[in-house]
Amino acid sequence: MIRVVSRATILHVDLDAFFAAVEQRDRPELRGRPVIVGGAPGARGVVSTASYEARRFGVRSAMPLRTAAALCPEGVFLAVDGAKYRRVSGEVMAILRRFTPSIEQASIDEAFLDVAGSEALFGPAEEIARRIKAAVRDELGLTISVGVASTKLVAKIASDLRKPDGLVTVPAGQEAAFLAPLPIARLWGVGPQTRAALTELGAATIGDLAAIPVDTLVRRLGQHGATLHERALGIDPSPVGGDAAARSVSHEHTFGVDTADPETIEATLLALAEGVAERLRGGRVRASTITVKIRDSTFRTVTRQRTLAAPTDLAEPIYRTALELARPETRGRRIRLVGVAASGLEEPAQLALFGEEDPRRHRAAEATDAIRHRFGDRAVTRARLLRAALPGAEDRDPTQPLERRRLGPRPTAGERESTQPHEPRRAGDGAWSRPDRARPTGDPGGADDGAEPAD
Ligand code: TTP
Ligand code: MG
Ligand code: MG
After folding, report:
1. Which of 76-90, 113-127, 156-170, 418-432 has the lowest mean pLDDT?
2. Atom 26 of ligand 1, residue of closest alpha carbon
3. Does domain 244-427 have CATH number 3.40.50.920?
4. Of 104, 135, 241, 297, which has the highest C-beta tally within 10 A?
5. Does 66 have pLDDT greater than 80?
């Protein structure tokens, strides 16, 4: 195989135990103690993150707070202060921007940087990584872990390898050797179903996967098999600051009490759809793929996805689609959590390709956004939401600001079901699963690809 070996100039930066580290920084008495951010120990809801001290007790992100309290009775439980973490996140990103303009924020606490053009000024990529670590430590009192590699895929895996306060460089040409001993679950695009299929084929490590003939993988997993083969070798063509199609916007809501009431579930989906639409309009993008996430009282988590006929930034089509997707999954079940995500984002330049929706509806929606900004989210809401007494958009999902999360690319979309339990750590980008990269329009929607659950 011929391939151009590029240099290792891509950095992936990720803060260590971000929310908890901010709290420990601001409250020195918490340093060295097990800190669990997410809420009171007896509360419903889940752990956002835990300090490394708390992780020793087995506490993990997305674990129910009550489980965390049982595992770590001496833990210090703190509420999520979304506004503070967003502010600190902005400060970190500002430091990163001093080193290169080529930056792609991937979640609230991580970013990819391409420093190819900065080496003349700041030294080789690894030296830049050291400088960034020092700047974040000295100026913000936080530690980060950095991976340096020739592709985003490998840089991201590298940054996670020696946490906390890690720095791992994978020289160009050594990607496959670096990945070979690692478990396949580390790769983007290996959810529980794919993992099961690969295990059947005898692959436990990425090296095992790389050794399977591509034909075999394609026969078993379709086009996804071919992509996985490339990823196993460290090949990832996506550029830093890549296309909007790989980003998403999502909102989710955990009910105070599990509910089987269709009215409540529908009203919640509407509120979430409105929040998502508002953020799309705020980001001047439209989405072509809608995903719903449903978790029931047994913690069975399902995601369903559909590609729209035309991209949108309006609540109505998002809500309609979410409702259709959610209905079969919620009927007769007690529901704990619902989420709505929009992905396959397109910027206005691309939008000209699609028929414009009614411009008056857009103006009305934008006016609504303006009022929300002036008077708070609760000022404008529909009658049925008032009845349901739902939280405002800002309360719903404090971990998800209007940032553009980089999502692991997926080869195919379609409706799919995840297996339980929810596995947030592998995704690494927040409490919510990673919806897909948009399918090219024209690709029929709604098929179950069965290959890769969004978990
Ligand atoms: P992560 O970077 O995944 O985790 P982390 O920074 O807490 O720890 P690590 O050292 O392993 O990187 O997520 C960043 C923040 O996002 C995290 O501090 C809290 C929030 N988050 C959630 O709210 N829920 C989740 O399930 C996850 C994974 C993160
Ligand atoms: Mg982190
Ligand atoms: Mg992160």
Report:
1. 418-432
2. 431
3. no
4. 104
5. yes
Cα of 11 from ligand 2 centre, angstroms: 14
Residues 6+ apart with CB under 8 A from 367: none
Ligand 1 atom nearest the C-alpha of 50 is 7
Domain ranges of the chain: 6-171, 177-232, 244-427
* pLDDT computed for residue 108 by the predictor: 87
Q: Which atom of ligand 1 is nearest to the CA of 38?
A: 23
3-state secondary structure 126-154: HHHHHHHHHHHHHHHCCCEEEEEECCHHH
177-232: CATH topology is DNA polymerase; domain 1 (1.10.150)
| Tokens found for residue 345 | 């984002």
Task: Give the residue whose CA is nearest to atom 5 of ligand 1.
Answer: 17
Pair type for strands 247-259 and 76-78: unpaired
Q: Which atom of ligand 1 is nearest to the CA of 80?
A: 23
Query: Quick one: which of 275, 283, 261 has its CA closest to 381?
Result: 275
Closest protein CA for atom 4 of ligand 1: 17
For ligand 1, atom 23, which residue shows the shortest CA distance?
Answer: 48
Assigned CATH class of 6-171: alpha beta
Joined together, the tokens standing for residue 318 give 């998002």
C-alpha distance across the termini of the chain, in Å: 33
Cα gap 59→19, rounded to integer Å: 14
* Helix, coil or strand: residue 78: strand
What confidence tier does 404 reach under pLDDT thresholds 50, 70, 90?
A: very low
What lines the ligand 1 site, CB under 6 Å?
14-19, 48-49, 61-62, 108-110, 163-164, 399, 424, 428, 430-431
Ligand found nearest the CA of 430: 1
Interatomic CA distance for residues 169 and 15, integer angstroms? 17
Among 61, 84, 110, 136, name the best residue to mutate to test ligand 1's pocket (greatest count of ligand atoms within 8 A of Cβ). Answer: 61
pTM for this structure? 0.61
More confident residue, 175 or 408: 175
pLDDT at 362: 64
Catalytic annotation on 110? Answer: yes
CA of 401 to the centre of ligand 1 (A): 14
Distances in Å between the Cα of 111 and the Cα atoms of 156, 238, 241, 428 are: 9, 14, 10, 12
User: Residues 110, 266, 329, 452: which is the catalytic one?
Assistant: 110
Q: Which residues contact 409 (CB under 8 A, 6 or more apart)?
A: 188, 189, 238, 246, 436, 437
Enter the tokens of residue 224.
């996804």
